[in-house]
Design a protein that fits this description.
The chain is an alpha/beta fold and 331 residues long. It has eleven helices and twelve strands. It folds into three domains: 121 residues, 3-Layer(aba) Sandwich (Cobalt-precorrin-4 Transmethylase, domain 1); 83 residues, Rossmann fold; 84 residues, Cobalt-precorrin-4 Transmethylase, domain 1 (3-Layer(aba) Sandwich), CATH 3.40.1010. Helix 5 runs parallel beside helix 6. It is flat, with a radius of gyration of 21 Å. The chain starts with a helix and ends in a 27-residue tail after the last strand.
């Protein structure tokens, strides 16, 4: 259903269910990797960091036999370990090799693309400006590709404070799950300060992050509140809240419907928009829809902004005939 078809037809106390929403191709791939490895080898299987940033997904995989660890020192020597979708630094890979760990790499291919860009620019002697959020797992891994050549910036103010040895030999890359608008402002400021700056051939912000933000923008002026299903440590989910708040529309992020607070609905909240971050399962969205129906939001209108049909192949070494694909988010 197009935005035009929805506009003007929203009944009293209704829901606009955004599409695309929920699992992206990188998340589907990462979850499938854990499930397939458990099928092939049985529990326990070790996973470095959360495979994706969603509490429900991690809890489900933990119940199936996955053991999540923060550091490789927690993994027995020679055991199998899966690297999360967010990627790791070369130092982590070297540590795994030295401890004779059997590595299965579930890094999202779009994150790998950013790592390759970092190494390419570093080999050419560029100072690399990495736009991202400090302490995010993806950023930590990317910084590790060329730590002596990379500077992290999080804001336009950070750009203004930069003092570079060679302002004519600088490049930028970005975390894949950033706000489109905020990142654009930072990149514009970088181009103003360093006119010869180079960047990736195609933007690093992933298709799913972009599509979900575009969908929120499309509905922001049509709703009274946005509800985002996703975990607090999910960068792309947090950005959806921020995008909506730019339109002065209240937005809330939560793991599941049990965290929804009645006071959010005070006042004239007639139209509620619903979406989900790229690591949030669809069943949690449907649970939220059922809850909203019970609260009188009986009409649910799905609004599809952009069709998604992206799939990534499995890491080498896993038999594709054993794939048990995680359902991609659908209505």
């Amino acid at each position: 259903m197009s935005p035009t078809a929805v506009s003007g037809q929203i009944a009293e106390r209704s829901v606009i269910l955004l599409k695309p929403r929920g699992f992206c191709a990188g998340v589907v791939r990462a979850i499938d990797v854990v499930k397939i490895v458990l099928d092939l080898y049985g529990a326990p299987i070790y996973v470095r960091k959360e495979i994706v940033h969603n509490r429900h997904v991690v809890d489900e995989l933990r119940a199936a036999g996955a053991i999540f660890v923060d550091e490789l020192t927690e993994v027995p020597e020679g055991a199998r370990v899966i690297f999360s979708a967010h990627g790791v630094s070369p130092a982590v890979r070297n540590e795994a090799k030295s401890r004779k760990l059997q590595v299965i790499d579930a890094t999202c291919p779009l994150v790998t693309k950013v790592h390759i860009e970092a190494t390419k620019f570093a080999r050419k002697g560029f100072t690399i400006i990495l736009i991202g959020h400090k302490d995010h797992d993806e950023v930590i891994g990317t910084l590790g590709e060329a730590p002596d050549a990379t500077i992290l910036v999080e804001s336009v103010d950070d750009v203004d404070r930069l003092e570079l040895k060679d302002p004519d030999k600088v490049a930028f890359i970005t975390q894949t799950t950033l706000s489109l608008d905020e990142t654009s402002g930072i990149v514009n400021r970088l181009r103003q300060r360093f006119p010869k700056i180079q960047g990736p051939a195609a933007q690093d912000i992933c298709y799913a992050t972009e599509n979900r933000q575009v969908a929120v923008k499309a509905v922001a002026r049509m709703c009274d509140m946005l509800l985002v299903v996703g975990s607090q440590n999910s960068s792309n989910s947090r950005r959806l809240v921020e995008v909506c708040e730019q339109y002065n529309i209240p937005a809330y992020l939560f793991d599941d419907y049990t965290e929804v607070k009645p006071e959010w609905f005070t006042g004239r909240i007639r139209t509620v928009a619903v979406t989900a971050g790229a690591s949030a399962p669809e069943n949690l969205v449907q649970d939220l829809i059922a809850y909203l129906r019970s609260q009188g939001y009986g009409q649910v209108n799905e609004m599809e902004i952009k069709e998604e049909d992206v799939r990534f192949s499995l890491p080498s070494g896993l038999d594709s005939s054993l794939v048990r694909l995680t359902p991609v988010a659908t209505a």
